[in-house]
Design a protein that fits this description.
The protein is an alpha+beta fold. It has one domain: Purple Acid Phosphatase, chain A, domain 2 (4-Layer Sandwich), CATH 3.60.21. The chain is built from 3 helices and 9 strands, in the order ββαβββββββαα. The chain starts with 6 loop residues before the first strand and ends with a helix.
Length: about 140
């Protein structure tokens, strides 16, 4: 883990744990934060994490950034705008849906789809408890908060 970096680039997309402005700690949860991050990103497509919430913000030319949380099955057309997208979280989701969240991304066709998968939450809770981690981390898996 110590050798991993909180930021990167792949196929022209910016990749950040937090954000382009603060790769480690910034949560991108508002249109204002997305606007400022898009200004700093220097590229039209950015993937972020950290908040554990599946969401997407877009900014079309001459307009402010807008966005919202995303549900499983939502397909977005990425063409004609700048984007900051958080696929959600495979573990510890915090958007009320306990299923593992992920994103199917096709930058060639300019589309993405938000997806969710069931997993063995009880086994994950057991592993958290066995590791001696806080009970709240196990509890939140069941609730997705």
């Amino acid at each position: 883990m110590a050798s991993l970096k909180p930021e990167g680039e792949r196929a022209g997309a910016g990749l950040y744990h937090g954000s382009p402005r603060d790769p480690v700690w910034e949560y991108v949860l508002s249109s204002l934060a997305a606007e400022m991050c898009l200004d700093d990103a220097g590229r039209p497509f950015v993937l972020v994490g950290h908040s554990h919430v599946a969401l997407a913000f877009s900014r079309r030319p001459g307009q402010p950034a807008t966005g919202e949380t995303q549900r499983a099955g939502t397909v977005l057309d990425l063409r004609g705008a700048e984007w900051i997208i958080n696929p959600g979280s495979v573990g510890q989701p915090r958007d009320g849906d306990p299923r593992a969240a992920w994103l199917l991304l096709d930058l060639t066709d300019g589309k993405c789809e938000f997806r969710r998968e069931e997993y063995d939450i009880q086994a994950a809770q057991s592993a958290i408890r066995t590791a001696g981690l806080p009970e709240s981390l196990a509890d939140r898996l069941r609730l997705g908060v």
